Amino acid sequence: MTDAKTGKTLTLKKKSAAASDSANADRPKRAGARARQVAQLERQREQQRSLQAPAAEAAPMAPPPARQPAAARKRHPGEPAPEPGTRPQPGHLQDADAAHFGARRRHEPSRAEIFPVFTPCPQGLEDALAAEMQALGFEDAEPARAGCRFHTDWTGILRANLYSRLATRVLVEVAHGPARHEDDILDLAMDTPWERWFGAEQTLRVDTSAIRSPMQSLQYCNLRAKDGICDRLREREGARPDIDTVRPDARVHLFLDEDSATLYLDTSGESLFKRGWRLEKGEAPLRENLAAGLLALSGWDPAQALMDPFCGSGTILIEGAWIALGVPPGIWRPFGFERLRGHDARHWRDLKDEARSHIATQLDSPIVGYDLDPAAIDAARANLERAWLTPDSIRFEIGDARSVPPPAETGWLVTNPPYGERLPSEEDTGLWRAWAQNLKQNYSGWNVNIISNDMDLPRALRLKPLRRYPLYNGALDCRLFSFEMVAAGYRDK
Ligand SMILES: C[S@@+](CC[C@H](N)C(=O)[O-])C[C@H]1O[C@@H](n2cnc3c(N)ncnc32)[C@H](O)[C@@H]1O
Predict the structure, then answer these.
(1) Is 444 contained in some domain?
(2) Is 87 inside any structural domain?
């Protein structure tokens, strides 16, 4: 965000935010031009910075693992097996590690190490996330509970952070072992080479989650993990990191199940759904990665028109514009890995430059949002501006879903209307009936996708869904209902 803010003050002239009243106004001509212009300026600034940057910035991003007494520990992912006959002496380990580390810093970094990665996501998006990761080149990506697993090198980890629209975080599995007692967690944390990622110069936060764990207190488990990390670093380096739960440099996640514990290094920092553009929240906004997930599940073709008649603060449509323009979701936000030891700032800049060079300058089809509430439209327009999109890229207008026309002959309507519990039931029924009437009369050829926790919504709309995808919006059990509006004789329920 700092980068984004600086770029913003450097550059742009605002266009008038006034939107056309006509539903058939001209299609946006240079939607991504603003994003691209900012990207170019940012690239120039980064090039200047890199000229001034000290050579140390080019340090290897993932220093090799510190060697430890072979007998005392479990092996960690990606770590080579010890050569037969070699048995490092504990008394010399720290010196040997330091020499090894120093040598690697002076020479070419090894990026060959492969890490097991877990990327959590909102429940219901697992298959879509695995497909996204495969499309990003992570061929062994497969869906897991509330996430997806795959293997990749460190560059792949940076790319997953930069490009994934559906993941909530990118976690690197650094240790896994049996855990039937809290002290097992302490041992596992003590056996893990944290010093390759962070030390006393970083602040630390540990989070713990569990499924069917027999442990009495997750808080105590969390403390054991923290103790293990800090004890190891104090023993190895003479000092331990301070704990900072608000803005830590390094984050570790402990996950417990019936009989085992897994420790993950969080490479994302703040959750990935925080793209950096949202300040204006509106009423019950969707998280950005859930909005991107709805677009993925709906099968929206980014060359086709997109509409949200209950757009609120504009989340679905702004995500849609970024997808259509190829704006990488992480391009303007900071990441946790930037604050870890050995971060290779130059390599990261190169990856971002490459990503920026693919941002398109214009949208092929209209993207249009309506909301009854003028404050929501103000919020959506402010968010559009912060997302580096030109005011004409997405048309946000005050309008009533019950009467607004479609912006093109065919397209995708993807929306998150107010949930039933927010509305008095008579008002609710009236709204659904009138909206369904508008859809049936004016939206033939449209693909309509609605997320709701009201399982009776199709009945209230008197429309039969082609598909219903179970998914969670936070803690709310929802469905994404997909309808195809056909020209005549659409089958009422
Ligand atoms: C759940 S919120 C949408 C939140 C949005 N997805 C976001 O991320 O900000 C529902 C929105 O529907 C709007 N709304 C309610 N009745 C409407 C109507 N008849 N026509 C258009 N918008 C309406 C509300 O003002 C509210 O902003």
Answers:
(1) yes
(2) no
